[in-house]
Amino acid sequence: MPSENTKKPARPEGTGREKSAGPAGLFPVFLVFLLFPIIAVFLPATDAFAIRLKELATFEGVRVNQILGYGLVVGLNGTGDKDQTGFTRQSLSNLLKRMDIAVAPSALKVKNVAAVMVTADLPPFVKPGTKIDILVSSLGDATSLQGGTLLITSLKGMDNQVYAMAQGPLSVGGFQITGAAAAVQKNHPTVGRIVQGATVEREVPIRWQGKDTLSVKLGQPDFTTAARVAEAINAALPGSGAKPLDASTVELAVPANFRDNLAVMVANLENLDVEPDAVGKVIIDERTGTVVVGENVKLSTVAVAHGNLSVQIREGFDVNQPGPFGQGQTAITPNTDINLEEGSDQVLLIERSTNINDVVKALNAIGVTPRDLIMIFQAIKAAGALHGELEII
């Protein structure tokens, strides 16, 4: 009999650990598969069509101002205003008078001179000494401004303050050639442009630094877009309290650390990505036959039958000529031939469309021209199956 001190066969090293470690070794694998859906849910979704805020809106006070002035263009080759244009002669007389040359307006010939209006856009925050582009347009009956030079002209704002001074040779993107019995013209030779032709003399006052609140103005008013802009601003700038006041205005509080450095805050905000929203629209231009369908336009199920009617009318004359040496007279009788053809299109069922791709496929299945689509869209809208605004321009 074996003694009590007889030792049992020793287990292979590591056997016990392998049995207990089996489930423990699989636990991380199960944990990965269990947590993967949860992680996928909390991953941030990428915007399919996000646009920077600077393309959607402007900030309060940051705007373009229009300025204009009245001037004279000289050096024209006989294409200036006619002598009957009294204000051109008067302006030239006043100009010469300021140069100590007294000439009566009635004694002046202005065929080489043209009265013009000079317009320009004054960007925000532009400083004195900056060059801006100007547009020069004929005010009288000049036929061309080609080769002309604009004399120094002051450009004023609506407050009657001078903001820029303009002068320089014109660049005209057209020409006119006139002969004794014919004329050839390309584009508009009575409008010219001078690149960097005006020098800014006064800055538009804008209260910028030290503001407690700031307003964001949307270019296309929309309540949904305004709410998304406020949400994006609050996420990027906690504590700003951004809120939409209406469909086009979002107001936020300027944090204390940005009140003296507002440009940095605006630079960060204008690069925020926002997905805009808009009302579904169908734009129809009956003059050109253009049809534009917006992204959010949807169609309910509807049956459409569009028949094409073609009418051809040919007018002719039958001549009845009497025989030789006859006593009769030649008779001419009208002859009209009318041909009527009607298309044999069948009724097509357009299924419910939930996106722009389905709308396009349904319309292409009808196989009609853009002119026909104008009438079809109006009929679908009248039937209540077009979910979106129908706008005719």
**Going across the major beta sheet, what is the strand order?**
3-4-5-11-7-6
Question: Spans of 5+ residues with little confidence (pLDDT < 50)?
Answer: 1-47
Tell me the Rg in angstroms.
39 Å
Give the helix tally.
7
End-to-end C-alpha gap = 112 Å
Mean pLDDT: 79
Number of domains: 3
How much β-strand is present in the residues?
Answer: 25-35%
Number of strands: 24
Structural class estimated from helices and strands = alpha+beta
In short:
The protein is of the alpha+beta class and 393 residues long. 23% of the residues lie in helices and 33% in strands.
Report on the structure:
23% of the residues lie in helices and 33% in strands. The protein has 393 residues and is of the alpha+beta class. It has 3 domains: 65-177 and 185-200, no CATH class; 213-274; 281-320 and 332-392, no CATH class. The strands form 8 sheets. It has a 6-stranded antiparallel β-barrel with strand order 3-4-5-11-7-6. The chain has a 4-stranded antiparallel sheet with strand order 2-12-14-13. Strand 9 and strand 10 form a beta hairpin. The longest helix has 28 residues, at 15-42. Residues 1-47 have low confidence and may be disordered.
